Amino acid sequence: MATTTYAGRPVTLDDEGFFTDPGQWSEDMIPELAASAGLDRLTDRHREVIAFVRARYTAQGAAPAVRALSKSSGVPVKELYQLFPKGPAKTAARIAGVPKPRGCI
């Protein structure tokens, strides 16, 4: 585990860079988290996906893998990969401050 700082607050991350305590996350961390994931500019569509992942984690205790993310959010898989080229489910989960989705390698 590692500790880093986003939006001036320390957060604990696992070895793959996912929050170990989603309660440490806040929306003002999104720009820094996105930049660290290689996304310089977020659109409203990015933010919709990130909010969906966060809400899904809050409701079900797990972030969705890419197919479930597409199916339940209504965002086509192709668009998810355009928004998050390095892997939509994992990147959105990192930015949303939730643990790694189950089933992602």
From TrEMBL:
Superkingdom per UniProt: Bacteria
The keyword Cell membrane belongs to this UniProt entry's keyword annotation: no
Predominant cellular place of this UniProt entry's protein: cytoplasm
InterPro entries linked: DsrC-like_C, DsrC-like_dom_sf, DsrC-like_N, DsrC/TusE
Classification via Pfam families: DsrC
Record key words, sorted: Cytoplasm
Localisation per UniProt entry: Cytoplasm
Presence of keyword Cytoplasm: yes
Family membership noted in the UniProt record: Belongs to the DsrC/TusE family.
UniProt name for this protein: TusE/DsrC/DsvC family sulfur relay protein
UniProt organism field: Actinomadura luzonensis
